[in-house]
Amino acid sequence: MVQNTHKSSNSSDGETLPQLISPKTLAYIHQLLQDRPMFLYFENDIELRFYAKRAEEYRRLLALGKLLFLSLYGIIAVAAIAIFPETVMANDLFIFKYVLTPIGLLLLLVLLLADNPLFQRHYQWLATPVSTLILFCVILASISPFDSLFSQHAAYDVMIIVTIISFGLRVQFPVCLLIVCLAAILTILTTASLNWKIDWFKFAHFYGLGSAITLLIVALIERQDRFAFLQELLVAHQTVELDRLNRALDRMSREDPLTALANRRAFDDSLNQEWERAKREQQSIALLYMDVDFFKLYNDTYGHNIGDVCLRRVGQTLKQALRRPADLAARYGGEEFVVLLPNTNADGAIDVAQRIIKHIDALALPHSRSKTAPHVTLSIGITFTTPQKQSTITEFLAKADSALYKAKENGRHQYQMEV
Amino acid sequence: MGDMRHLTLESHLRSLLNGLSQDNSAGTFAQNLLYTKPLAVHFRPDIESAFLVKRNLEFSLIFKVASFLWLLLYVIILTATYQKFQYIFTDKSYFIWQSAFFSTGLLIFLGGIFAFLPKTHHFIHQYVVAPAMTLLLYQLLIGSIAHSQHEFSSYASYNVIIAMIIAVNSLRLLWQKSLFILACSSLMAYATAFINNWQIPLLPSLHGFVLIAIVLINIAFFIERRERLSFLNEILVEVKSHELSRINRHLITIAREDALSGLANRRAFDDTLIIEWDRARRDEQAISLLFMDVDHFKLYNDTYGHSAGDDCLRQVATAIKKAVLRPADLTARYGGEEFVVLLPATDGLGAEEVAERILRTVDTLAIPHKRSLVSYHVTVSIGICTMLPNDKNNIALFIENADAALYKAKTSGRHCFKHYMDPSVHNNFHFRH
User: Fold this and answer.
1) Could you please report the per-residue DSSP string of A310-325?
2) How far apart are the C-alpha atoms of A41 and A44, rounded to whole Å?
């Protein structure tokens, strides 16, 4: 029985793998990796896959970072209240009501919704508004007119938050830019309506300049990330390719190229295996050894190409004549074929031989110079045995050979048995 | 390290990756790490050095643009500071800030020059960037704590943070080196402040430096981890590409090679025959074909068994190949016990020489064949056909005539050759020998 090294028996090779990359996409990937343009977008569905990957990283980040974010918030909030109690409570608990609390609530919201699959897939829809609002709250604290030292510390927090949003959240560059700008706009509108006096110079420094530098670096890193993602896609593709080629290689080394039957080597391996099994289980194993009658004359008459066609059709017919999955047809030599029938006794073997002869006759491949029939015929030698400890495969083969010789001597176009 | 001076960073990285692509253990290593995805992604030495060269290369690629941007940043801050705090540039009591501005400007200027000298980039990235950054940060730090009550001091602290972001994220340094820069500069600043008895503002330094440093280093750690994992992917791509081309070459070989004898197989022969026939036709040269098989091979198999038969064929194939001397000549296994030798640009005489040589070489093997009706050892019979391709003949005829010549050799007693010379080659055709 021909051993398949991989299990994809019901599908053609390679197509059992999850995603395949079309050749056009593959060429696109190679082109990008070679040119290394200053870009930030992929064409077609690569962008979708990249987004999905980022979404997964975001999910993992939230899963791991829940505690970190909460602790960071906790430290800052507690420190703020402990060190600047009057500021926090100033102006009717402004900082407390409109900065500390909203941020806490927003964080809780994110952590609650983090496990929701809808938000996992479209993570930027959750991350963007929440980050914008949190950033806005902290900016408000940093430009609040209550205490300049407090504001300075809040400014540090603004820069920390911008860093975390840009580098840590895995949102994409345009989204980062959007968040930073939106937060700024919200701030400007709010302070206008609150009538606060803002030190715009300072704000431009720690927020404008600081964010610009951060965003620039984010753009660079995202570009790196994208190239890395392309590499990932390539690896996945190459793995599939290698698998497919390896299987093709394996198949080629076990297959006779002309007839697509098993080749000699594959047959020898199977014979060894089945012999051992028959010996273990004390079952009868049968072998049909056959060749095409007057094949040399056939070649001489019709030419080698037609000879090849004849062999191919004989091979096909043999394959079709076999019923059980364990039965193996192989091309043994030039015009010689074998059929291995495990777990088969004399009657079973004769049955198969008769069937084969009948089917080959039915092919009616014209053979004008055959001395037995006007068409191509086979002679078959049959042998069967239940292998004992001292039996050898060589003897087994010799008996089949001898049986074939008998069939030839007896006029060909028949089967003979030897035991 | 020595020969790196002669290679560009790009070619150095390429040669390292090529070396790794042929190392299957590198592929396995990468695969394992990518599977386990540990927190600390630790490379083995050869992969680590390739990774460092890649980092070097990335720095080199952005150095020019980066130095321009640093210059831009510097000019913005300088101009803004001058606008608002003009006196700190003239008043001698603020010399710490003046020196900070000056040394920063100097560093950026020098960086700008070296950015245009690619050969220095490796050295600069490896040995100069970290100390330079440490000094710069140190200057900015003492600048922010020197006159801590001054209004400019808060701006100075923002500059420190900006410098930290640049240092940790854009210089392509390993996170440990970044941590080292931050630690050294802060310790130096602390020492200076201590010596000069400055009052160190505790809260701003904890918040504006330490906390930010912690956040930045954390982020740098995870970014580097991600980059290390994707570098492993890069290595896998190299390894697998190499493997793929190897297998493809192997497949091509298998498709053209006869497994038993190692000679070209029938398909390869058919393809080559077409090419050589066309060439002979174009060049108007004679082409010869030797068609041969092992005498009484079936009897040999019956006598000695099929494995011995295979072995015999293998030896005969080797002998035939040995007798065929020119690289342009093709020896192939045509069928079960049939072999062919294609001799381009060979006339009758040359073909017969080869045939004679083959007969003798096979005889020398002296493979015992007790049931041969010809001799006590294995022999071959050869049919030769020599033709000059023209309008009156074709490949089918070529083979047919060689086959007919072989038939004649067999009927003449085997262990010999018979030669069919096509009319195209000589004015009269005849069988020679």
Assistant:
1) HHHHHHHHHHHH--ST
2) 10
Phi/psi class of residue B262: alpha, beta or left (left: φ > 0; alpha: ψ in -120 to 50)?
A: left
| Domain B266-432: assigned CATH number | 3.30.70.270
Q: A328 and A203 share a domain?
A: no
Residue numbers of the domain that contains A354 = 264-417
CATH number of A388's domain:
3.30.70.270
Q: For the whole model, what pTM was predicted?
A: 0.71
Would you state the structure tokens that stand for residue B28, as one six-digit string? 């396995």
Minimum-distance CB partner of B240 among A209, A210, A238: A238
Structural domain includes residue A14: no
How many CB contacts within 8 angstroms connect chain A with chain B?
A: 146
Strand partners, A291: A336, A379
Q: Identify which of B73, B154, B251 has the shortest CB distance to residue A152.
A: B154
Strands B287-294 and A378-385: unpaired
Q: What is the DSSP code string of B375-421?
A: -SB--EEEEEEEE---TT--HHHHHHHHHHHHHHHHHTTSSSEEEEE
A219 plus A85 within the same structural domain: yes
List B238, B276, B337, B352, catalytic entry: B337
Residues A356-390: tens digit of each pLDDT: 999 999 999 999 988 889 999 999 999 999 999 88
Residue ranges of the domains in chain B? 2-242, 266-432
Mutate which of B74, B159, B236 to test chain A, going by most A C-beta atoms within 10 A?
Answer: B236
> Which residues numbered 95-124 in B keep a CB inside 8 Å of some CB on A?
none
Interface pTM, i.e. ipTM: 0.70
